Every structure is written in structure tokens, then in C-alpha cells.
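Hello Y.,

Per our agreement to keep a running log of every chain we model this quarter, I'm adding this entry. I've kept the format consistent with earlier entries: sequence first, then predicted structure.
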Amino acid sequence: MRLTFLGTGTSGGVPSVGCGCRVCRSSDPHDKRLRTSALLETEKTRVLIDCGPDFRQQILPFEFKPLDGVLLTHIHYDHVSGIDDIRPFCVFGDINIYGDHQTVEGLKTTMPYCFASHLYPGVPRLSLHTIQPHQAFSIGDVPVLPFTVMHGKMPILAYRIGPLAYITDMKTIDRGELKYLEGVEVLVINALRFDKEHHSHQLVGDAVSFARQLGVRQTYLIHCTHQIGLHDEANARLPENVKFAYDGQVVCL
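Predicted structure for the entry above:
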């Protein structure tokens, strides 16, 4: 199983519009962060995790072949607004979209033209699946176990996929959810910046502490702002088994 980070940036991406800081001016590709998304692949199955406004740009370098499913964490724009750009993949059949009730119903509101009784020619053909926390299912040969984290006061989904846990936009997690993370080896988790508290996102220190609590082998930090600093300098501040992920990075599981 292979995970490719399509984007590792926060809602505004990096560089940040109108900013002239040294990160936003950097020529190092590691300092360019599209909105957070990932592609999980096995020999038989291809699963997209979140589909934000940069999806078209993110998917162009890849071989054009079916998407077996799209896992959505929540309804916020930076995680779902690229779904219309999935339409080319409909030549392989309807696209299966998985999300909680709030996300599925939200898509019907934000993309009503995709769910009308008489579809406009050319719209993406989407098959919505409402999933529940703690109810496991599979997409092809990929086992998926959704669990809940808190994005401020908003419950959203995170995913346990075999040895991998994929968490974005978390601020806190209920103790009762930790049992679904037992035995995780690789943790992907959000870390907005090093300091300056945020009401709905955790900071780098929070993410590092959580990784230590779980005892995972390797942690990759995502959903980062330009305030993280230059990639190499920021990584030097982290424990050996914790790293900032970067766009295009591939992790074999």
C-alpha cells in the first residue's frame, strides 16, 4: 500500500496570497503546499482522501485510471471543493463518495446540479455513501475504519486504514476514540504551526505529544501554514520519527 501526499497545506495553501515572507518567496518545492489531500493505492485499488480546490493540479501528473472511492473528512471548502473536477474519471463509472451525514447532505446543497432528478449533461456522476464512525467497510482491498475527532466544536471523520491513521483538522479527540488507534504504526496528522493557539486546529507540539501517546513508529505532519517556516529548518526542530510531509512525498506502508 502506498500513500502519496497530494497536498500538505492549510486552507489558504502556501505560498499565502499577498504574503512576502521568506517561506512564501522560497524557491524550494518543499515550501510549496497545496491544500491537504492524499492518494492511497494498492495493486488493485485507488482511494482519494479529501478533494479540495487543487485536485485538478494535483492529479494531472498521475496515470489516468479509475478512482475506486473518495473518503471525505468533512464538508469544509478546502476538503471538498474539487469534487466537480472528478468528472473525467466518470468514464470508468460513477464515483463513490464516502462521508458522514453532515458531509453527504452538505454536498447536496453545495452541488445540487449533481443530484437533480434530471442531470445536466456532463456533470460528474457521484454515488454518495453515508458512513458511520466505528463501522468498518472496504473499498476494494483497502480496509477503512472511520473514527471521530473534533475540529473545534465540529465532529469530523478521521480514518484508520490498516497500519495507517489519517487525521486532519483535529483540535481534540475523545478518549473513547483512542481504542480505534491501537497498533497504528504510521500517523498522518495536522499541525497548523508551532505557536499561537488556534480555536479549531492543533499545533505542532500537540501533534508530537499525540504521536508519543500512541507510540507510533513514524509521524507525518500535514495541513501546515507558511508560519511553520522553511521546510528544512522546521524539520530540524522535530523529533527523529516526526517529519513535516511535503507535496508529492510517497510513503510505502
